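[job 4417] fold queue: 2 targets
>>> target A
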Amino acid sequence: MKGVLERIESPADLKGLTPQERRILAAEIRETILNVVSKTGGHLASNLGTVELTIALHTVWDAPKDIIIFDTGHQAYPHKLLTGRRDQFHTIRQGGGLSGFLRREESPYDVFGAGHAGTSISAALGFAEARDLRGSDEEVVAVIGDSALTAGMALEALNHAGELKANIKVILNDNSMSIAQAVGALSYHLARLRSQPLLHSLEQRAKDFIQHLKVGRKAIEHAAEGLKLGMAHLMSPGEGPVFENLGFTYLGPIDGHNTEELIEIFRAVREMKEPVLVHVVTTKGKGVEYAENDARVFHGVTPFDTGCGKFQKKENGNPTWTSGFSQTLLELAEADERIVAITAAMPDGTGLAAFAERFPERFYDVAIAEQHAVTFAAGLAASGLRPVVAIYSTFLQRAFDQVLHDVCIQHLPVIFCLDRAGLVGDDGATHQGVFDLSYLRLMPGIVIMAPSDLQELADMLLTAVQHDGPIAIRYPRGSCPRPWEKRKPRPIPIGRGRTLREGSDVALVACGSSVITAEQVADMLHVGGISAEVIDARFVKPLDEQRLCAAARKCGRMVVLEENALAGGFGSAVLELLSVEAPECRVWRVGVPDRFMEHDTQQAQRREVGLTAEQVAERVRELTGAPGKRDARKVESPERI
C-alpha cells in the first residue's frame, strides 16, 4: 500500500486528506528529508521545523494560482516534496538535480527565487500590487523565518505594505533562531510574544462565546462563522503593536506543529482582505532529537549518520580556511585590544564563535543586517578600533554602498574577511563568491588580498590589522589543500607578490586558491619541456606591477588564473596593467565566464569553467604550440594586448 506522500503529486491532492493522513504525511516528509539530506548535505533543521506549516499552507491556499513565496529557501524542502518533485528530491544540490533553494525555472510553484534572506515580503507586495492593477483575485502569501525578519528590507516592506493597506498575508515562522541563536531587539520582542498563551481554535472560541446567548443552533453556527474574522482582530496578546503600528493585523502566537489549528486559522485569514501577519511558533529540527538539541549545528549539514547525527570525516585532514582564520584572529586579538569582530547572524559559519566566547565584550552579532554591519564597523574604526567584518563573499554584495560610501571614501581601517570566496559548490548560483574581486576592485583606496594557504592567511590578517585603511581578504570554502606550517605571522609589504618558480616560456599568475593549481600546471608542463614561471600575486589591489611586467617581458606569454568572474576581476586588472607596460605579451585569462554557476561540487564547477590543472596545462600547450592532448572543449584564443 502506498504511503500518503507517494500519493501527493500536487498540492491539490492535499485537499481531501483526513487529519490522520496529514499526521502520517508529516512523519513521512520528515523521514524523507532526513534520509536524503544525510546523504547529500543541505539545510536540515529549518526544514524539519516547517513540515506541518507547509502542509497547512498548501491545504488552504491554491498554489500555483495563489502565490506562496518562501523566504531564503532554508525552509522550502517540504514545499518541494508537495509540489511534484518527490521523485527528484534525492538529487537536491547535486549537479543537474534540484536546487537547494527556490528557482523559478524549476517549478511553477516556485514563483520567486531566493537564497539571501529578507526578500519575500518585498516580492510578495510586488505580486499583490500587480494583482490589484490587473484586477485578478489570487491570494499572496509570504513565508518568512530563520530571523529573516531582522533584515532591513523585510521591515521596509512591512512598512510599505501597511501604508498601501495591501491584501497580503505574512506567515512569520518563528523558531527563535536564524542560523545561530536569533539576536536583536526584534528577536527579543518575538520572544516575549512566544511567552503568551498560544492562540487556539477561532471557531471554538466564537462558539463558546455565543453559547451564552439564548439563540438556536443554526443562529449560533451562523454567528460563529461571522465572528471568526472579527475575533482575529482581537487576538493580539497585547505585545503585537510593533506589527500593528506598521498597519498589519497581528494573529498569534500559534502552534506551528498543530496542522489542524493552522488549517482552521489560515482559512479564516484567507478571507481577510488586508495586511495580516500570522505569528507561527515552530521548533527548529523538529522530530529529530539531535537536530532539536543542536539546531545551530544541524542548520546546514554535510553528510551524516542518521542514527546518531555524527558527521562523516572529511577526505582532507587539513584545517579549513575558516578555522585557520578563527585561530589566527584569536591570537592577534590577545595581543591587540583594538580588534573587535562583527558577524551578520553567522558566528559559526564565519568562524567567530570562538572569538565570541573568548572576547564577548568585543564581539557583535548584528543579525541579518549586512548594511548595518559595515557602517557600524566604520563607526568603530573611526573611533580608533580595528573592526573585523567576517562575512561570506556573497553576502557582502548586500552592503556595496556601505563599503564604498561609509568605509572607502573615509579611508577607514575596516578589515573585511570574505569567507566562501570563489566557487562554493552545491549552494549554487545565489551563494557563489565569484563577484567580490570585481565589485571591490573598483573602489579607490581599498587593498585586496587572497592567500594561497593558511600561513599566508595568517600573515595577511596581521598585515590587515597593521594597515591604516580599508582592506579585504578573500578565502575559499572547505579545507586548505596544503598543511599549515603554523609559524608566527609576519606582515607582508602592501602590493608585494612572490615568485614561486622561475621560468621562461610562459608565466602562470594566480591569486588565492588558484595558486596551487598553477604549481600543478607547471609540473605538468615541465614534463613536456615547457618552462613555466609561477607567481603568487597575493595582492589583487594594488598589483605587484614590477614583478608582473618583468614576467610578461621575459616570457612573452601569460596565463592568469582566478576563481572570480572574468568581467572586472584579477585577470582584467593584469590586462589593464600590461596593455600599457608590456603590450607585446599575449595574455590568457582563466576564470568564471559571464553566467551564473549552478549547484554542483566545487571540483565539477572548476572543470566546467576550465580551471582544473589538466585543462589549464592543455590550454598552455595550445598557447605555446607545444604538442599535447587536446581538450574536447573549444579553446578560446588568447588576448593580445
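>>> target B
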Amino acid sequence: MTRIKVSNFNELKTAIDYGAQYIIITRSFLSLQSITLPPSVQLLGQAQENGAFPSISFSHSDGFAITCNNHIHNLVIQAPSEHRAIYNITADEHLGTFEFSNLTLSGQFSFIARSGVKNARINVNNLDIIAANTCHYLEQPQKYGVNVLQGAFTVYNFNSDADSLIELNIEGLTIGRENAPVIGSGMFISGFGDQGGRVLSNKIITQAVYSNGKIPYGVANLITAAIFVVYGAEVKELVHEGDIVTYGVNDMVLDTWGSVENWLIKRNVISYGPSGVGFVNFGYVKKFIVEGAVETYGLGARGYNQYDGTVDHIEFQSITTYGDGSVGIQISKKIGKLTVHGDVHTHGGIGNSLVKGLNVTLPAIPLSIKEGGDVEEINIGGNIESNGNDIVSYQVDTGIVRAFNLKGKVLATGKNSQTVVILNGGQTPEII
C-alpha cells in the first residue's frame, strides 16, 4: 500500500491523483474545494507536537466525498454548518466497509444510499459533530402527517429495493453542545419506509446530544428529534451515556418509527420547546429504560406517548412536565409493563399540543390511557400529581389497565381538578 504524507491542499490533491491508497495528513490547511476519496483510499491525521489532530477547513463547499471502502481517522473537518463535512456520492451495488474514528466535524455527516446500492457497512468510533444545520435537505421521511428533518448525523437508506441493507455500528457519538445545539435533528437513522431498503445496527452508543429544529411555532407537519430511529431502521442495542436535549418547536427528544431491542438512557431526557415529547414511540421497542429524569418545559410537551406500535418493558425514574397541555404519560396502544420509580407530575393546565400532525388542545393529565390503550401492568413508586386547573390526574378513557401497583398517592391540587376519572367503559383496578 502506497503511503504518502501531505501537509497542504496541493499535496493532498497530488497524492490522490497519483493513486495513493494511504494518505497521512501532518498539518492543518484550507481546502479550496470538496475532496473526493477514490475507492479504498484511507485518510489519517497525524497528531501534531502538542497532540492535536490536523484541521482541514472548507470555505464554501462540502468536505470529503467518500466512494467505496474509505477510512477517515484522527482529523478535525470544518465545513460550513449548512454543508456536509463527510458525504457519500456513489451508487455502486457493493460499497464495502467505511471506517470513521476520532473525528471532530463542523457540518453534517451524511450517508444516503440511493437506487442501485445493495449493501454497505459503516463503523463509527468517537465522532463529535460540533455544529450542523440540516433543515434544508429535501430527503425526508413522511408518515403520521409529518415530515422528519435530517440530522447532523444521518444514515438513510433511500433505496426502495427491499434487498438493500446498510449495516451501522457506532461506539461514541457526540452531537452539539449545551445551549449550542445542532440545527435539525441530531442522530437520524432511516430506511426507505415500512418496506424497502433497511438500516440494521447491532450497537449504537452516544454521549450527549443537543438539537433544535428551529421550526416556527404553529407549523404542524414538520418534526425533528435528538435521536430518531425512523422506519426501516432496526437497532439491537442503543445506549445514551450523556444528556439528550432538544430546544425547539416539535423537537422530540427520543423518537422511533422503527424498532429497538434494548434502549438504555443513562442520563436525563430534557425538552425545552413546545410540543417536544420526551419519548414518543410509533414502532416496536422490546426494553426501554431511562435512569435519569424525563423533564419537559414547553407548551404541549408531553413526557411519554405510545401512539402506535408497542413496547414490552418500559421504565422511568420520574416524569415531570411544566407546560400547559403537557401530558405526563399517554398510551393509545397495547403495551407490556410500565414502571415509574418516582413521581409522574404535571404542573400545567389546558394547552395546545401537536398530535399526529395536528395542533390540538390537551389537558396536562399525568397519566392518560386512551382508546386503544391496553396496559398489562403499571407500577408507580411515587405519586401521580397534577397542579393545573381542570385536570384529571389519572384518566382511563375507553382503554384498559390490567394491573396497577401504586406506592404513593393520586393528587390533584388545581381548581376543579379530579384525581381519577374512568370514561366510556374504561377499565382499571381500583388504586385509591
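[job 4417] complete. Note on B: Helices lie at 9-18.
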